[in-house]
Write a structure and sequence with these properties.
Blueprint: E1 3-6, H1 19-22, E2 24-32, H2 37-50, E3 57-61, E4 66-70, H3 75-93, E5 99-107, E6 136-145, H4 152-155, H5 170-183, E7 187-191, E8 194-200, H6 201-216, E9 222-230
Antiparallel strand pairs: 1-3, 2-4, 2-5, 3-4, 5-9, 6-8, 6-9, 7-8
Helix pairs in contact: 2-3, 3-6, 5-6
Length: 238
């Protein structure tokens, strides 16, 4: 199962580095619990491409996962819209059965396999706005600010007089993100190494992507990870 779609059209964000310069993207794997998993996976990927949701994105699918790189702004909105649509499509194609998706989003690691974290002018991202899918999801979510101390980019964005977290205080970023998730009603309960999010697929993803992007406005390299489950036969409290 290998597909590739490339629509390179990098543009520079007036507020800072362009998505292509900064390195904004994700890698995800879809795991439908059905014997028809090939049709579900490839069909869902085809659905979002036909809907035009790959515009401004570069996608590469191999036997393990799909890489999606954002080449134009608004990068975070494009990624969130693509991912929400592909998960919803996989759920529909599986007849509402159990589908699990593993997602890793990275901001600040350009060049695919190499990193240049010296970029300056970290851009802000507008809040994510996604149409509800009508499909409820549960997710385990973790956020990792990976360079919150040292380096020219972090020195110019952390520990300022505007209330930003001090240099090296990565827990402040994480706790702020969790508080925001509680505020919008998607954060359910803490878990070992993760926070559980529940709600419509769109709202769960908007919560995680918003937090990731907001931390990325102050930290040159930030990663967030989600394991998302829809249609699970197991219902737990919280």
């Amino acid at each position: 199962m290998s597909t590739s779609t490339t629509r390179p059209n990098p543009s520079t964000d007036a507020a800072g580095a362009s998505p292509a310069e900064l390195g904004v993207g994700m890698r995800f794997s879809i795991h439908p619990h059905t014997d028809r998993f090939v049709d579900v996976i490839l069909g869902a990927l085809a659905d979002v491409e036909e809907a035009g949701l790959t515009d401004g994105l570069t996608t590469e699918t191999d036997e393990v996962s799909t890489y999606v790189g954002a080449t134009t702004a608004p990068a975070e909105q494009r990624l969130a819209a693509y991912l929400s649509a592909v998960i919803a499509a996989a759920s529909r194609r599986s007849g509402g059965g159990h589908v699990v998706v593993h997602v890793l989003l990275s901001r600040g690691c350009p060049g695919e396999t190499t990193c240049d974290l010296s970029v300056t002018g970290l851009p802000d991202a507008e809040p994510i706005e996604l149409e509800p899918t009508g499909i409820t999801a549960a997710a385990q979510w973790s956020l990792y600010p990976l360079l919150d101390a040292g380096g020219p980019a972090s020195a110019s964005n952390n520990g300022d007089d505007n209330g930003n977290a001090s240099s090296g205080d990565h827990m402040a970023h994480i706790e702020s993100a969790i508080a925001a998730a509680h505020g919008r009603g998607t954060a359910a309960t803490p878990a070992h190494y993760a926070t559980k999010l529940t709600g419509d697929i769109a709202e769960v993803l908007a919560t995680a992507v918003d937090a990731w992007a907001q931390v990325g406005a102050h930290v040159p390299h930030v990663v967030t990870h989600l394991t998302i489950s829809v249609g699970s036969p197991t219902q737990s409290e919280g």
